[in-house]
From TrEMBL:
Residues 389-537 form the Thiamine pyrophosphate enzyme TPP-binding domain. It is an enzyme of class 4 (lyase). This is Glyoxylate carboligase. Pfam families: TPP_enzyme_C (PF02775), TPP_enzyme_M (PF00205), TPP_enzyme_N (PF02776). Its EC number is 4.1.1.47. It comes from Nonomuraea roseola. Keywords: Lyase, Thiamine pyrophosphate. Residues 8-119 form the Thiamine pyrophosphate enzyme N-terminal TPP-binding domain. Coiled coil: none annotated. PANTHER family: GLYOXYLATE CARBOLIGASE, THIAMINE PYROPHOSPHATE ENZYMES. Residues 191-326 form the Thiamine pyrophosphate enzyme central domain. It comes from the Bacteria. GO terms for molecular function: tartronate-semialdehyde synthase activity.
Amino acid sequence: MKRIPCMEAVVAVLESEGVDTVFGIPGAAVLPLYAALRTSSIRHITVRHEEGGTHAADGWARVTGNVGVSIGTSGPAGTNMITGLYTALADSIPMICVTGQAATDKLHQEAFQAVDIVEIAKPVTKWAVQLKEPAQAPWVFREAFRIARSGRPGPVLIDLPIDVQRGTCLYDPALDAPLPVEVPTPRRSLVRAALDLLQQARRPIILAGGGVVIGEAAEELRQVAERLRVPVQVTLMGKGAFPEDHALFAGMAGVQTHTRWGNAAFLESDLVLAVGARFGDRHTGDLEVYRKGRTFIHVDIEPTQLGKVFEPDLGIVSHARPFLKAMAEAAQEESAPPRAREKWSRRVATLRESLPRRDDFDDVPIKPPRVFREINDFFGRDTTFVTAIGLYQIWSGQFQKTYLPRRYLVCGQAGPLGWEVPAAMGVKVAHPERQVVAVVGDYSFEFLMEEVAVAAQYRIPFVIVMINNEYLGLIRQAEIPYGMNFAVELGGVDHVKVMEAFGCPGRRVEAPGDIRDALAWASKEAEKERLPVLVEVMVEREANAAMGSALDAIKEFEPLPALELAVDWSD
């Protein structure tokens, strides 16, 4: 066994774990690791802010399914990473953040930029650890990858004191390999129980959460749905798990990101088979309304997720893919679905046709739904969209169409402003052949707009579509019931000139008829110049997004059409 610098062993581990790109900012306390990276096959992209580095690694991880890596030095570099760690933990994204640290014999002396980042990071990671001995280096990193991938995926932080980084260890990469990751599979009896409950139901739906996307189980989901003729809904994190133009697509239920007909279908359902969904509060709303009259089967890879929000009628611990594969196989042995199931499928189709939202407005100022209509019409099915938090996320969830897994990326739970630009950069680095579009708000863009300079420097092209209402729109809408108006107006920033200052093109649109031409221009310009390109769409200043109780979300202050509410569900 050869003795080598322990950071060279770490880099060998990264390479063997499938990491081809890392995002970070070098600093004095992490230079031994950077020295080892110089002779590796790994591409390093130097970001402008450590939080931006974590979001870029997050975007890279979401589209590859592999573990993203972000690197920073000591002190504020680590604290700047906390938001990215929290975002990854909340959305089940595998990621490793590496921080440099002061020498171990100086940690108790308040040394320069010495902070106990391990204790700070523990609440927002699956594992936070400080390397104590050089000989541990390759094995700590191996375990970090295993933990990040296993069970419900999530982030890990590894803190590297400078004196430990300078050490050596015995290591032969030819003799080492990634640690195995356990994949929980369901017991046959539980699959049978779930299938029996589903077959007994007259108006069942399958609720596909982010676990279906993360678990690469979209094909198995489609097989189950088509064989049993069960409509499929998705959560916000599950968008892309099921094609939205499929005859069995049943929309999205929720109090913010939802379809009117999706809420209506959910309220009429009598059984919910939830796979890889965590029943977030923006999805469920009032639990009494959400649960009333429905049987729930909850399938999740994380045992403690079962019963966390409410007790299911049947709980199953399993990875999404083996569960759905077992269901598909069991369904093959079943006779044809009950005739009532076809009535239910037709009913969902009727709701879809009867309860659409308008998106064909020609008004000036532009109404936000029109922007998403143009986005849906212009960009192809394989386009990868990235969006964050605010009214534009709600409109995106309500109006944007998604057809393939890992093509709609959203920071759903933590919701950090500024996430989109660095995340889009990570996506494009991972899949340079794909069209990547970041849908942003004006305020969110300004949080980490310096990362545009990184994309320009490294020639990473993508389109930025900004929904600009010159307001903290979501806060303004939330203030209305309280009679307050603290949401500051956000004038004073010329975003097109900001892009030009970074060396990137930008265009402002103020009429709905000009949106498509601007999108076409931006798409061509981005690929031609190999740069991020901005389309800033000025929308109605005080436009609101539909949200509230499930019933309100169906009505949205419009008369409910006659839908033949009395339906005979008998065979």
